[in-house]
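Researcher: Please translate sequence to structure tokens.
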Amino acid sequence: MTTQDKTKALAAVDLLFSIVLALGSIWVIQEASRLRVFGSFYDAPGFFPFVMGWLILIGAVALMFDAIKRGGIKQMKEKRKELGQLRKHESMRRLLVLVALIGIYGFVLVPNMHYTLASTLFLVSIFLYLRSLKWYYTIALSVGVSVGISLVFHYALKIPLP
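Model: Translation complete:
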């Protein structure tokens, strides 16, 4: 199978992913717009997520049009059963676990505890799940990154974190 055939074969997956990405970016834009503005909108905590949300939305729409052009809608109708099998694939399970960990971080940990602790727990869980580092490197890197980001935001940028 050539690269062009593989690209065509993934049109349905690209279409599905672009829809999920577009919905997620719309949610990010909406939530970023709700954040409190201290001075001007440019130094507000929601400015960067707002801009990133729009950039991701533009990319998602471009991916959506490309997937439709490659026959993504037709493939979705034809290969509905194969898309159902996708959830049994190991890489899809890993992706779903990572998305769940991100959801837990954003919706459970950050609102209910200090940013540094929430981020440390999140990074430790990600690294342990991916088995990317030895446990002592995982803890050291997670604590170092979380504390470092907190210190930069608190002292250098003078921006409060949740």
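Researcher: Any highlights?
Model: The two ends are 50 Å apart (CA to CA).
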